[in-house]
């Protein structure tokens, strides 16, 4: 993948009033998710009620941007033709440190990807908008993953 | 064994075609419904229940009413079953339950799809469209690839383990002249040599979309006695729906079929090991792998060893998808799940011809929709 992702003609999000804070934050390079004020559970994707206790008292909080790779796929034949120029590229399931899992774009790194890899938020312009993509944490020579 | 909860007394099936031209879904529904009702030995007017799928192409709403009008039926029970690939199996227990509830006596369960050259892209607006598609994840291939990668990482299962499932489906399809891959076998090496679509998923581990149709007629066990064909009884059923998007799946290496199958076995007083036929939903190889494990046929993560130990052909002790599965037969969209019901009925009737299994007393049929999200399991028994 050597093309500029921002030039892709890929479908953007179908933003609603409910989800706008998430995408506004994404445009500023932040990852913001909801947390329930009643059961304290972090919630992704945005909802009008907490899916765990049905409370409506949900508040936005910036996430740490740390995550763990639960699974990934190198996509050779994209389902949407807008992604063809970028293939092969990698998408993954990112378990956020706050608890919920989101699907995201995984940027290429220097090491091969493994399930369980530690990730960090890497806001990236894709298809004309900044999306909360992720990148594998690169450990220095003295650092070792736990 | 528990008493019958209803019986399948008629089946219909259209030969799969890669493409249709100028044929409406309604026309195909009419054709396959006619086959099933005739096979049942019933007059159309005897059909007083109607279960249909949502993807009727030209009819976004009021689908049962449109089909009833088209077929000249006036059902006293009609519904859309919207469980993706689990819709076919999901219809069967609903039909039996509706009969038991006294709403109707004979239910037509029908799914069909046309497949025109230029299919429109539908404008969706849902969480997957908003939170998965912009990151490059469109379509089921990527979702199932993520499930497969997770299984490999958790249990060390190999590409070869998964390829055995596709190769076995192709082998069984060689005995079904209607199968889209009849005459086109593919061994494990061929599966592994096929193009990578979304790692670790190869092309030949994915069903081929086709046009087609499948239908069954369900009536009471009592009514079944007066009809011409040997009834196939519904002995137990289970269903569970847990999520839609793969990112929201509670587990990646086990699915809702686990509890759906457990309920079906409990209702029927049977166990997985007693099944004479496994008619398991197989949109992708990973789906069969997970179902074998969730059924308790082997320990979690051990499907590869289990496959190595069992002959999956009609001659073996564990016949699996003797019609070729959808991997060998082709996937006529939502009707694909119903192929597993229709093949099980043929086997339990002793009507499967060249591919007839030996002992044919019990069959497990599974249906699956979305990304291992919607699940229905049936235990069927011969008369
Ligand atoms: Zn809550």
Short account of what is shown:
The complex is a heterodimer of chains A (146) and B (383). Chain A is mainly β and 146 residues long.
The profile of the biggest β sheet of chain A is: 5 strands, mixed, barrel
- Cofactors, ions and other ligands in the entry: zinc ion
* Beta strand % of chain B: 15-25%
Q: What is the strand tally of chain B? A: 11
Q: List low-pLDDT spans of chain A.
A: none
Q: Give the integer mean of the pLDDT values of chain B.
A: 93
What is the CA–CA distance across the termini of chain A? 30 Å
Strand content of chain A is 25-35%
Report on this structure.
The complex is a heterodimer of chains A (146) and B (383). Helices cover 5% and strands 34% of the residues of chain A. Chain A is mainly β and 146 residues long. Chain A has one domain: OB fold (Dihydrolipoamide Acetyltransferase, E2P) (Beta Barrel), CATH 2.40.50. Chain A has a five-stranded mixed barrel with strand order 4-5-6-10-7. The mean pLDDT of chain A is 93. Chain B has a single domain, classed as Thiolase/Chalcone synthase (Peroxisomal Thiolase, Chain A, domain 1, 3-Layer(aba) Sandwich). In chain B, the strands form two sheets. In chain B, strands 3-2-4-7-1-8-11-10-9 form a nine-stranded mixed beta sheet, sandwiched between helices. Chain B has a two-stranded antiparallel ribbon with strand order 5-6. Chain B starts with 6 loop residues before the first strand and ends with a strand. Classes of the chains: A mainly beta (146), B alpha/beta (383). Chains A and B meet through strand 4, strand 5 and strand 6 of A and helix 4, helix 5 and strand 5 of B. The complex binds zinc ion (ZN). Chain A: It holds the Pfam family zf-ChsH2. Chain A: This is DNA-binding protein.
């Amino acid at each position: 993948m050597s093309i500029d992702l921002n030039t892709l003609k890929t479908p953007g999000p179908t933003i609603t009033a409910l989800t706008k804070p998430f995408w506004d934050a994404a445009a500023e390079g932040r990852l913001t998710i909801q947390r329930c004020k009643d059961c304290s559970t972090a919630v992704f994707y945005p909802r009008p009620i907490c899916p765990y206790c049905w409370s409506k008292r949900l508040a936005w909080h910036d996430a740490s941007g740390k995550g763990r790779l639960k699974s990934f796929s190198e996509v050779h034949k994209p389902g949407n033709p807008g992604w063809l120029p970028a293939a092969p590229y990698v998408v993954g399931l990112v378990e956020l440190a706050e608890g919920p899992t989101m699907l995201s774009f995984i940027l290429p790194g220097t090491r091969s990807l493994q399930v369980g890899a530690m990730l960090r938020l890497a806001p990236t312009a894709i298809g004309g908008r900044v999306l909360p993509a992720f990148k594998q944490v690169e450990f220095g020579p003295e650092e070792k993953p736990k | 064994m528990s008493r019958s909860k209803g019986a399948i007394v008629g089946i219909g099936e259209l030969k799969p075609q890669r493409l249709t031209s100028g044929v409406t879904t309604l026309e195909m529904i009419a054709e396959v419904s006619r086959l099933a009702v005739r096979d049942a030995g019933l007059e159309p007017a005897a059909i007083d229940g109607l279960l249909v799928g949502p993807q009727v192409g030209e009819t976004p709403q009021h689908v049962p009413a449109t089909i009833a009008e088209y077929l000249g039926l006036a059902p006293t029970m009609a519904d859309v079953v919207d469980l993706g690939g689990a819709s076919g199996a999901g219809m069967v227990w609903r039909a039996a339950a509706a009969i038991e509830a006294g709403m109707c006596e004979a239910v037509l369960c029908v799914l069909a799809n046309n497949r025109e050259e230029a299919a429109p892209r539908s404008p969706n607006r849902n969480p997957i469209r908003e939170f998965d598609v912009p990151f490059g994840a469109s379509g089921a291939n990527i979702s199932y690839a993520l499930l497969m990668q997770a299984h490999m990482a958790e249990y060390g299962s190999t590409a070869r383990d998964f390829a055995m499932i596709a190769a076995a489906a192709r082998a069984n399809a060689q005995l079904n002249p209607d199968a889209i891959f009849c005459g086109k076998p593919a061994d494990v090496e061929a599966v592994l040599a096929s193009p990578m679509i979304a790692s670790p998923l190869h092309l030949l581990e994915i069903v081929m979309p086709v046009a087609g149709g499948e239908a069954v007629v369900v009536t009471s066990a009592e009514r079944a006695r007066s009809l011409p064909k040997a009834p196939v009884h519904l002995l137990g059923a289970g269903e569970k729906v847990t999520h839609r998007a793969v990112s929201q799946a509670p587990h990646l290496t086990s699915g809702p079929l686990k509890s759906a199958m457990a309920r079906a076995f409990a209702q029927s007083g049977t166990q997985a090991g007693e099944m004479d036929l496994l008619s398991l939903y197989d949109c992708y190889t990973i789906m069969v792998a997970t179902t074998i494990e969730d059924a308790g046929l082997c320990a979690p993560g051990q499907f590869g060893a289990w496959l190595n130990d069992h002959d999956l052909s009609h001659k073996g002790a564990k016949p699996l998808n003797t019609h070729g599965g959808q991997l060998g037969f082709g996937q006529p969209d939502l009707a694909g799940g119903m192929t597993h019901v229709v093949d099980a009925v043929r086997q339990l009737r002793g009507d499967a011809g060249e591919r007839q299994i030996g002992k044919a007393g019990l069959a497990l049929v599974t249906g699956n929709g979305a990304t291992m999200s919607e699940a229905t399991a049936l235990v069927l028994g011969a008369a």
